[in-house]
Each structure stands twice: as C-alpha cells, then as structure tokens.
C-alpha cells in the first residue's frame, strides 16, 4: 500500500517546482495536491498519513491554517516548509502546528528522510491489531523515529517473546531501563513483576542478602525472614543495572542461580527455586572487564545470549527534536502557566549538540529551559548546555583538584601493589598479607575492593 500524503502548495505552482516530483509513486508515495486558496476554505486530508504544508511564498492562508491546526489534538502528522526569511508570525504558527518543519530551498534527500520519519514504519495490517496493542503497551515510553531507533524497536519486539537472558549495553542516560521494561511488557511475563536492581547502589556486604534474602538469625539484626529481590521477581523479570558493579564473589553466586534457577537465602538451610528471566545492563565494555579479570567470563557468556546495544543520541540526531518536544509537553504542565514552544534557532542549537548525557540530559535541559524562559517562546539563550563532555573528564593534578589527584594516585598505587602481591603468592591472601606486613582481614578487603575473587 502506498503512503498517502496530502500536499498543500500555493496556487499556480509549476510541476517543476512542486514537491510532488520528489514524492514519486515508485518510491511508495501517493500525493493528493491542494492549493491554499481552496484548502483554507475546507481542508480535506482525511486518510492521509502526512500533511506536507508548503508556505512558500508566505501567505495569510497558511498562517490561518497553522493557527487552527495547533488547537487540533488529534491532528495528522504535519511537515511545514517555510521561506528562509519568514515573518515571526509564520514561524510561530508553523512551529506550534507542525511536528517538523524545513526552510526553503530544500534538498530532496533531506525531505524524504523527514517524511519517512514522520510517517513511521510500514503500515501494519488490521489482522495484527492485537499484536500492535501489545507493542504499544510495551513501547509507549520509547521516543524516536530515526533509522537506528526503528532498528532498536524491531530488536525489542523480537526479544520480548523469548525467555533467553538479555544483555543491554549503552552509555549513561540512553534509556537502558526503559528498553528492559519494554522487553518485559512484550513478553509472556508482562502480568508478573518487573524488579529493577541498581547493583552499584548495593553495599557489597549486603548484596547477597538483598538479592537472595536471609533467614531469621542469619546475623545480628535479622529478627525475621526476609525475601530477596530474586524471590520478589519470581514468575517475572529481574533487571540488573550496572551488573559490572557486583563483586567477583557475588558474580559467582549469581552465576549458579542463572544456571540452576535455585538459590539459598543467607543463613538458610534449604534451597529455594525461582522462575525468573534475567536482563542485565552496563555502560562499560564487559569484554574488556573480562580481560582485566574484573568480570567473570562464565557469567558474561551466560548473560550475553541476546545482545541489545542502545545507540547514543548523537547517532540518532533526528530524534532530538521529538524528544525535546516530548519533554516540553510532559514537563510543561507542572507549575507552568502557559504552553511553551521552541524557536527554530533554539531547536537548531539542540540538534547541533552532542548530548553526552543522552536522553536524561535532554530532559534536564528542557526542564531548565521551561523555568528560565519568561514568555511562551524558548530562545537559544534559555538552552544552557554543558561546555565539557563528562565522559572525558579526568582527575589530573592541578591546584583546583589536588584532593582528587591525590586520591587517584593512592588508588592506582594500592591496586597495583595488591594485585602484584596476589599474583606473586598465587592468590593466597594469608601469604600476601604476611608479605605486606598487614592484617589478613584488612588485606582481604583491599583484594575485594580491587575485584580479586577471594573465593578462587
């Protein structure tokens, strides 16, 4: 089925200048052409998947239509084309009413990419409505329409029905937990619990109790039996964020649970069984962590059955405008008296930025812009962006960060000293501690701190 596009242009436009020549039938488009004179009297674009509104040259009929369209909640996706030298009134009305807009003159390839993005993936068949509803339920929090993002959605829908473990990789703020929730909601377990665990926030001495629970009397403050997060996730999905933060000792215990689906609470006498699907996430390269002996290779291979790589926002720039408008709508209602909109130049500033903090940073920037803009229009001066990339920040000796540099130097020395001694004594903590003239328990804590598996 061809994609239906309603094209509105000024009266008298020649076929050589009409945008219909770029949306050819052989490329899967069917254009219904209208002129502003008749269109403003009674717009008729029912059934169209996209409204392509060309206001070149600028005309009052286009401005009037955009004003009306901005009040229409269930409007057809709209792509506006305006002159590069447009009046403020046209820019404002077009920005309010359109999902995207371009400045004249335009390039054919750019037009086709934006049209594809607004129309979305191929039209689904009516017979798959039930499947579509399931997908919508699982993907309603996932925003984007760039080719990289469409591929990500396709992978999510394929991974959802499976029972295999999933390893999600991606930079901080890319939405790994949202993807994990989507996989859960697309699975047969969607009616069961989804239990997220931030491994980096659990103290090492409490990790086993938090995950597997403990029996009454297991330690001083254990006055009653306590269910762990694995037990709470029984029948559903357990999401382990920052899986690389688990100690090597804890990784070994979790590996046994994945292999056998059984675990023993701390201080318990009996093994328990849990039917859990495991999804893990990390922002590090686990392959390198395995080589550095900071992550168990057997656990890595157990988790790395289905691999999902979430692309950073700088690799899907076409989604920046969608995300900015989404957060503008979502955050604009909280304590803000009037609806706000992004000026074209502010939008361009957002699209030119690399977003090291990814989607989370977009949310923060838009929230800040809403608060700082006194009127209804958000200008470039209200878009405050980071001047440096936190991914590249290093603690180097300087008068302003002496404490940080000192801490780094001590940590580097400790790590190398401890690992060298352990290698010298084949991992024997007692002999290594005696050689270092240090208490065995204190040396053991250092070994655990630097990810040496003391159980080996």
Helix content: 40-55%
Determine the mean pLDDT.
81
Q: Which structural category do the helix and sheet elements fall into?
A: alpha/beta
Please give the CATH class of the largest domain.
Alpha Beta
Uncertain spans: 121-134, 391-400
Total domains: 4
Under the CATH scheme, the architecture of the largest domain is 3-Layer(aba) Sandwich
Number of strands: 14
CATH fold name of the largest domain: Rossmann fold
Task: For the largest sheet, list the strands in their spatial order.
Answer: 2-1-3-4-5
- Find the CATH superfamily of the largest domain: P-loop containing nucleotide triphosphate hydrolases
Q: Please state the CA-atom Rg, rounded to the nearest Å.
A: 28 Å
GO molecular function: ATP binding; DNA binding
Keywords: ATP-binding, DNA-binding, Nucleotide-binding
Protein name: DNA-binding NtrC family response regulator
Domain Sigma-54 factor interaction: 142-371
Tell me what the structure shows.
The chain has 456 residues and is an alpha/beta fold. The protein folds into four domains: 3-119, Rossmann fold; 126-309, P-loop containing nucleotide triphosphate hydrolases (Rossmann fold); 322-382, Orthogonal Bundle (Helicase, Ruva Protein, domain 3); 399-449. The protein is built from 18 helices and 14 strands. The protein has helices at 36-41, 60-70, 88-97, 108-119, 129-139, 147-159, 176-185, 207-212, 229-232, 248-260, 286-291, 297-303, 320-332, 344-352, 358-372, 402-424, 429-435, 440-449; strands at residues 3-9, 29-35, 50-54, 78-83, 100-104, 166-169, 194-198, 237-241, 262-263, 272-273, 277-282, 306-309, 341-342, 377-378. Helix 2 links the parallel strand 3 (50-54) and strand 4 (78-83). Helix 13 packs across helix 15 (358-372). The longest helix has 23 residues, at 402-424. It is elongated, with a radius of gyration of 28 Å. It starts with a strand and ends in a 7-residue tail after the last helix. The relative contact order is 0.08.
């Amino acid at each position: 089925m061809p994609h239906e596009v309603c094209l509105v242009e000024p009266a008298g436009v020649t076929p050589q200048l009409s945008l219909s020549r770029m949306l050819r039938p052989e490329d899967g488009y069917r254009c219904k052409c209208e002129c502003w004179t008749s269109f403003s009297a009674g717009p008729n674009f029912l059934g169209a998947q996209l409204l392509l509104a060309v206001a070149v040259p600028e005309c009052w009929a286009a401005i009037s239509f955009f004003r009306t369209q901005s009040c229409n909640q269930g409007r057809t996706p709209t792509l506006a084309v305006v002159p590069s030298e447009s009046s403020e009134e046209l820019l404002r009305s077009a920005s309010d009413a359109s999902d995207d807009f371009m400045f004249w003159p335009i390039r054919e390839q750019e037009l086709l990419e934006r049209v594809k993005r607004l129309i979305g993936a191929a039209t689904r068949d009516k017979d798959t409505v039930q499947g579509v509803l399931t997908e919508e339920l699982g993907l309603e929090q996932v925003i984007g329409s760039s080719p990289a993002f469409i591929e990500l959605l396709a992978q999510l829908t394929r991974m959802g029905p499976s029972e295999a473990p999933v390893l999600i990789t991606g930079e901080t703020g890319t939405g790994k937990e949202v993807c994990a929730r989507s996989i859960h909601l697309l699975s047969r377990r969607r009616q069961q619990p989804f239990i997220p665990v931030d491994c980096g926030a659990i103290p090492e001495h409490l990790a086993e109790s938090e995950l597997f629970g403990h029996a009454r009397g297991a330690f001083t403050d254990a006055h009653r039996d306590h269910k762990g997060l694995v037990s709470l996730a029984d029948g559903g999905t357990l999401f382990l964020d920052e899986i690389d933060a688990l100690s090597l000792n804890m990784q070994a215990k979790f590996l046994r649970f994945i292999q056998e689906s059984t675990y023993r609470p701390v201080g318990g006498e009996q093994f328990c069984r849990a039917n859990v699907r495991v999804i893990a996430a990390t922002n590090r390269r686990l392959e390198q962590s395995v080589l550095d002996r900071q992550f168990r290779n057997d656990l890595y291979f157990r988790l790395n059955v289905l691999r999902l790589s979430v692309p950073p926002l700088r690799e899907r720039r076409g989604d920046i405008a969608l995300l900015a408008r989404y957060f503008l709508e979502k955050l604009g209602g909280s304590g803000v008296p009037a609806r706000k909109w992004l000026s074209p130049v502010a939008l361009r500033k957002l699209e030119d930025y690399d977003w090291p903090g990814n989607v989370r940073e977009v949310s923060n920037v838009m929230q800040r812009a809403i608060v700082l803009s006194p009127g209804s229009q958000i200008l470039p001066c209200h878009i405050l962006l980071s001047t440096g990339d936190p991914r590249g920040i290093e603690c180097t000796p300087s008068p302003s960060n002496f404490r940080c540099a000192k801490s780094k130097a001590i940590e580097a020395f400790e790590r190398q000293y401890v690992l060298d001694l352990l290698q010298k004594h084949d991992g024997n903590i007692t002999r290594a501690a005696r050689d270092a003239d240090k208490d065995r328990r204190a040396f053991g804590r250092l070994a655990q701190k630097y990810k040496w598996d003391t159980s080996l």
